[in-house]
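User: Is it possible to get a 3D structure for a protein together with its bound compound? The compound here is adenosine-5'-diphosphate. I've pasted both below.
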Amino acid sequence: MKLYADVVLPLPLAGLYTYSIPTEFQNTISEGSRVIVQFGKKKFYTAIVVKLYQPKELLSSIKDVLSTLEDYPIVTRSQLDFWEWVSFYYMCSLGEVYRAALPSALKLESETYVFLNSSFEGEEPLSEKEKNVFYLLSSSKGSSISELEKQAKLSNVIPVVKSLVDKGAAFINENIENSYSAKTLSAVRLARSYSDEELNAILDDLSRAKKQQHLLTVFLYISENTDVVKKKQLLEKAETSSSVLAELVKKDILHLYDYEISRFDYGETNIDSAHELNEYQQEAYNKIQKSFETKDVTLLYGVTSSGKTEIYIQLIKEIISTGKQVLYLLPEIALTAQITNRLKSVFGNKLAVYHSKFNDNERAETWNKLLLDDSVQVILGARSAVFLPFRNLGLVIVDEEHESSYKQQDPAPRYNARNASIVLAGMQSAKVLLGTATPSIETYYNAQEGRYGLVELTKRYENIELPQVEVVNIKELRRKKQMKTFLSPPLIQKVETALSKKEQVILFQNRRGFSSMLECKTCSWVPRCLHCDVSLTYHKGQRMMVCHYCGATYSVPSECPECQTPTLDTLGYGTERVEEEVLEIFPDVSVARMDLDTTRGKKAYENIISKFEDGETELLIGTQMVTKGLDFDNVSVVGVLNADNLLNYPDFRAYEKAYQLMTQVSGRAGRKNKRGLVVLQTSHPSHAIINFVKRNDYASFYKMQLEERHLFRYPPYYRLINIVLRSRDERQVEAAALRFTQSLKQSLGDRVLGPGKPPVSRVQSLYIRNILLKIENNASIRKVRETIEYYQNLISSDPAFKSILLYYDVDPV
Ligand code: ADP
Ligand code: ZN
Ligand code: ZN
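Assistant: Yes, that's possible. Here is the predicted structure of the complex:
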C-alpha cells in the first residue's frame, strides 16, 4: 500500500507539497507528525504532515520522506485547523503560520544553528552517529546543520541533531550562556550578622521611625523560620510599603538581593493563597460565570486597580479544578514578570510561561510538556502562546485587550492574538474573558450589540478614588514665558512635594520613532488632511506634508494659516531629553528611564521595574511602556508631558489610543494607599478627549468615536485590509499599485482607496505603495478574499511586475 503525505514547509510558499512515505515509517507517521524532507537542491527541512492519504493514481517523481523524528504527532489536528484559519483570515501562506507557531528547536532545517552544551554530563550514552556530530560542535560558535552534514559526511543529520538536543548535549540557535534566566526573586537579609545586643540597639534607635521599627521586627520574626525572606512576603506581613524598606536599606541595616529560583520549578501549588474577593469583585465574578452560560466571549470592563487580576485567579482556579487548561495572554513581555510572580504563588508548577525571551530549547520544552502530560494547566504568555498545543482549553483570558501590541506587524502572519484567540477558543469550546479598564471601540461595540457579555467593575480595590486629573495649559504658560522646561511650574511643584514625602513619580512622554509633525508655536495649529480626519505628517526630506491615510500631499505653508505668524516649527522631544532636564531640576533624585533604548537587554525591563518597586528609583520616565498594567504601590504623581502628541497622531485610532494611554497611565497613580494625582500638560485644555479623560467618561468618548467611525467608514462598521506593495523599482511599484487598484475598483468600487504612499515610503531600499480596502462588516470574507486573490494573480503573473513583493495586513492597527 502506497501512502502519500501533503506537508507544509517552514517557508513562505503557497500550498502544500507532496511526498511519499516509505513503508518503514508508515506506522509512525500521522497527521501532525514531523518529517524530514528534501526541498530544493540540497536543503533539508522539518515539515509537518497536514494530510495523509492513499493516492488514487501513482505519481511519478514524488520524493520520499527521508525520516521521522518521533512516533507521535507534534502538532495536533486542532492546531492544524487553527493554522489554516490564520492563513485564510490573515491572507498569508500556511508555511508562514508554521514558522511563527513552532519554536525553532522543533523545526530544524539546513540553516539551523547548533551549539554544544559544554556542561553535558553524558548520562545517556551517545550512538556512533551522535558522537560523530557531538565532537564537531562548539559551545561558543554555532555550526549550521548543513555544515555538520558536510563535516560528518552524513547525508541527513537532522534526526541526529534532534536526539542530541533531546539528550541535553546540544542547543539550538543559542547557547545556554545567553539564555533567558530571569527567574529571580527579590529577597531581604541583614546587612551583616549582628549580635542580639546590637539588634536591640538598632531597634531602640528606630523608636522614632515606628514603621521601620515594625518592619525590622517582622523581618526578624520571619527569618527565624526561613533562610530566604522574600521581599513581597515581608511587606505583606508587615503591611507596609517598599519605601519603608528602602529607608532601612539606605541606613545599611537590611540588604536587598536577588534570590535565584529554578526556571521551571515554580514550587508547590498553593491554591488557598489566593486573595479572597471583596464584595464587588465577587459580584463581578458571579456575573462573569452567569454570562458564560449564554456568551462565548465576555468583556470585563473594570477601572484600573479594581482587582481584575484577582478575579482572573479565581476563574482559573475554578476552570482547572475541572481538569481544563487556561491560556492567560498579556500584550507585553514586560508585564509577564509581575503577573508571573502573582500566579506562581497560587498555581506553582501548574503554571508555564511562554514568550520570545525564553530560548528555543525552553520553548520546545514547554511545547512538549503541554503535548505529552497534563501537569501544566495554566499558560501565561505573550501573543505567540496562542500557537501552543492545547488539548483541553477551558478559558482564555486576554488581559489589557485594547492593546495594539496584540497585533503582529512583521513578518507574516500579521495576526491579532486577541481576535485569533477568540477563534481558537471557539474551536475548542472554551470561553474567552477580555479584561481592560479602557475597552477598545471594537470590543465595546461587540458588547453593546450583544455579541459579547459585559461585566463592569467600577470601584477600585479598597475604594481608593480614581486619581484627580489636573489639566495644565502649556500654551498659556508658554505665552506668559513660564515654560522654562518641558515640565510646567505646577508639575514641578507637585513632583517636589511628592518626592519630599518619599512618594514616587512617573513622567510619561510618548515619542514614537516617526517623522515629526509641524505645529504653530503661537497658536498650536496643526495641519490636517482635507479628506481624512487625521493630522499630516511632516516630511523633512521632501519638504511636504503627507496624509498617512489617503496619501494626499500638501506643501508646507510659509506662515500659519490660522494666526498668520511665520512660527511653524517641528514638534517633539523624546524621553532622553526629558531625563536630562529632570536631572537638572532635581539633581539629587534617582531617576530611571524606560523606553525601547533602555530595555534592549534581556533582564532590562525587570531591573528597571524592580528597582522602582524597591524604591531605589524615585522618579521613572517612560514611553507607553510605563502605562501598561504595572502595579506600583507608592506612586502618587503621574505627569503626562505632552498630551497633544497623542491627539495629533496621524491615524483614525489616534483619539482612541490617546484616551486609553492617558487613562492607563493615570491608573498608575495612587493605587494602594491613597488617591493619586495626574498632571496633564496640553495646549488644548478644552479638547474633548482631555475632558473625557479628566471625567473618566468612557461612555461619551465611545459615543463620539462611534459617530466618527461610522461617518468615515472605519471599524467597527467596516473591516480594513491594507495591501502593501514593495519593490526596488519605484516605477514598477507605482504602476503595479495603480493597475491593482483599478482592477479591484471594477469589482469593489469605492471600497478601494489609493494607491497611496506611506509617510515612510522607502524602507530597506524598497519603495512602498498602499491600497486600502474598507469592506462592510457583513460582507462575505471569503468572496472578498477570492476577488483580491484573483487580481493579485494577474499582477503576479505579469512579467512587467516581476519585482513586486506583496503582502496583506488584515485589520491593521
Ligand atoms: P487591576 O488588574 O484591575 O488593575 P489588580 O488585580 O492589579 O487590579 O489589583 C490592584 C492591587 O490591589 C493589587 O496589588 C492586588 O493585589 C490588590 N487587590 C485587589 N483585590 C484584592 C483582594 N480581594 N484582596 C487583596 N488584595 C487585592
Ligand atoms: Zn498659528
Ligand atoms: Zn487624507
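The radius of gyration is 29 Å. The longest helix spans residues 730-748.
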